[in-house]
Write a structure and sequence with these properties.
The chain contains 20 helices and no strands. By secondary structure, it is an all-alpha fold.
Length: 412
C-alpha cells in the first residue's frame, strides 16, 4: 500500500484500535501460542483456549463501528437444522446422566464440555462479518512453527515421542492437533493466493507427521488430502457424499462387528489389529436394551479405566457413541454429520475444500480411537472451528478492491 493510500484511510479512534488489538491477541493465543505450547505440555490447551476465545469476544464486542448483533445471529444459528441437531444432542447427553454408572464424574465432564462449547459459540457469534486479513496470516505461522518443533523433538529426543500410548503422549496429541489445524492455515493462504507458501506449510506438516510416526495421524492426513483433491473441483457433491457416508457408518455401527465376526470370525488373530471385533460383537449382543438408551454420557472412558471394558474393547467414534448414548444419540449424531458435511460443501469455492478436508481428518481420527469423548478432543475441535471462522470472515476483506488515488485531470 502506498503512502497516499495510507493517508487516504480514515484515522481510527482509540476504542477501535484497542478492539482490534484484543482480537489480534486472541488469534495469536489460539493459532500460535496454543499449538506450539501443546508440543511440550498438555495443560496449555485447557488454559489458553478460554483465554483466546474471551479475548476474541472482547475484541469483537468493543469495536464501536463493527459490533455485530450476537443474539440474533445465535438465534438464527440455533433455529437452523444444524443448530437444532446440536441442541438435541446436548439435551440427550444431559438426560443420559440419569442412568450413567459414574454420575458425579460424568456430570463434571458434561458441565466442562457444555461450558467449552458455549464459550466457543459466543466467540463465533461475536466475530464481525469482516475480519482483517492480517489476522488469518497468523494461522500458517502457527502451523509451520508447530511442525518445526515436532521435527526437532523427533530428531533430538525420540524416546519422548514414543514414550506412551497415543491417548496420553503429549507429542502425539500435538501431532493430532497439527493434522487438524493445518487446514484452516492452508485456507488462510489460499484466500490470499499464496499457493507456494501453502505448499511449503503442507510439506512441513507432512514431514512432522512422518517424523513423529503416529499411524492414526498419518492416516488422517492422507484421508484429508484425498478429500481435498476430490472437493477441489466438486465441493458440493463431495460434501453430500461424505455426509451420507458418515451418517450411514454411524447408524450401522453395531451391525459392523456382527457382520465382520460372522464372515471372518474364525480367522481373526486374538493379538492382531482386528482383535477388537469379537469384543465389540459380544458387547452388542449383551447390551440388550442398552442399545436403545446407552450406558450414559462419559461412560466409555470410565469403563476403560475401571476395567468394565476389557483390554480388547474397541475405541473410537462408532463404539463409544453407541455405548454411551445408544440409538437416539447415534441418530442425532448421524444427522449432525450429514448437516456439517453438506454445509461445508456449500461454503465458498475457495474455503469449501479445506473445510471438507479438515472434517475428514476429524472423522478419521475419531474413528481410529483417539479418545474422542475426552475434553481435550472437544477443545481441539472448538479451536479448529474458531480458526475457520477467522478465515471465512477474512475472505471478504481479501476480495475487496482497494481504492486508487486518481490525480486531477490535466487541462487540455
Amino acid at each position: 500500500m502506498t503512502t497516499m493510500e495510507r493517508s487516504a484511510r480514515p484515522a481510527s479512534d482509540p476504542a477501535t484500535d484497542a478492539a482490534a488489538l484484543l482480537l489480534r491477541l486472541g488469534v495469536v493465543v489460539l493459532t500460535i501460542l496454543l499449538p506450539c505450547a501443546a508440543v511440550v505440555s498438555r495443560r496449555p490447551l485447557f488454559v489458553l483456549t478460554p483465554i483466546g476465545l474471551i479475548l476474541m469476544i472482547l475484541g469483537s464486542r468493543l469495536a464501536p463501528l463493527r459490533r455485530p448483533r450476537t443474539l440474533p445471529k445465535l438465534g438464527r444459528a440455533c433455529a437452523s437444522p444444524l443448530g437444532v441437531t446440536i441442541i438435541l444432542f446436548v439435551v440427550w447427553a444431559g438426560m443420559s446422566l440419569a442412568w450413567t454408572p459414574f454420575p458425579q464424574a460424568a456430570a463434571d465432564r458434561f458441565l466442562k464440555t457444555a461450558g467449552t462449547v458455549l464459550l466457543a459459540m459466543a466467540a463465533f457469534g461475536s466475530l464481525p462479518n469482516h475480519v482483517r486479513a492480517s489476522n488469518s496470516n497468523l494461522l500458517p505461522i502457527g502451523a509451520a512453527a508447530t511442525a518445526l518443533a515436532l521435527v526437532v523433538i523427533a530428531l533430538v529426543a525420540p524416546a519422548i515421542v514414543h514414550a506412551d500410548e497415543a491417548d496420553t503422549n503429549t507429542v502425539h496429541r500435538a501431532t493430532i492437533g497439527l493434522v487438524i489445524l493445518v487446514w484452516p492455515a492452508l485456507g488462510a493462504l489460499a484466500i490470499r493466493e499464496r499457493m507456494a507458501a501453502a505448499g511449503i506449510v503442507a510439506v512441513a506438516v507432512a514431514v512432522a507427521t512422518v517424523a513423529v510416526w503416529l499411524p492414526s495421524a498419518l492416516a488422517a492426513l492422507i484421508v484429508s488430502i484425498l478429500t481435498f483433491s476430490f472437493a477441489f473441483s466438486k465441493p458440493g457433491r463431495t460434501g453430500w457424499v461424505l455426509g451420507l457416508g458418515a451418517a450411514f457408518l454411524i447408524l450401522a455401527g453395531p451391525a459392523l462387528p456382527l457382520v465382520a465376526t460372522a464372515v471372518v470370525g474364525d480367522r481373526i488373530d486374538p493379538n492382531g489389529p482386528l482383535a477388537f471385533l469379537p469384543a465389540w460383537a459380544a458387547a452388542v449382543k449383551s447390551d440388550g436394551l442398552r442399545l436403545l438408551t446407552g450406558h450414559g454420557f462419559d461412560t466409555a472412558v470410565r469403563a476403560y479405566e475401571s476395567g468394565r471394558l476389557g483390554a480388547n474393547a474397541p475405541r473410537g467414534l462408532l463404539f463409544e457413541l453407541w455405548y454411551e448414548l445408544g440409538l437416539p444419540g447415534a441418530a442425532v449424531s448421524a444427522a449432525l454429520a450429514y448437516f456439517v458435511f453438506t454445509a461445508a460443501g456449500r461454503a465458498s469455492s475457495v474455503i469449501a475444500p479445506f473445510l471438507l478436508a479438515a472434517l475428514a481428518a476429524i472423522v478419521a481420527l475419531a474413528a481410529s480411537g483417539q479418545a474422542i469423548s475426552q475434553l481435550w478432543w472437544l477443545t481441539l475441535v472448538c479451536v479448529e472451528a474458531a480458526s475457520f471462522s477467522i478465515v471465512i470472515r477474512a475472505q471478504h476483506t481479501v476480495g475487496r478492491v482497494r481504492a486508487k488515488v486518481v490525480g486531477a485531470p490535466s487541462a487540455g
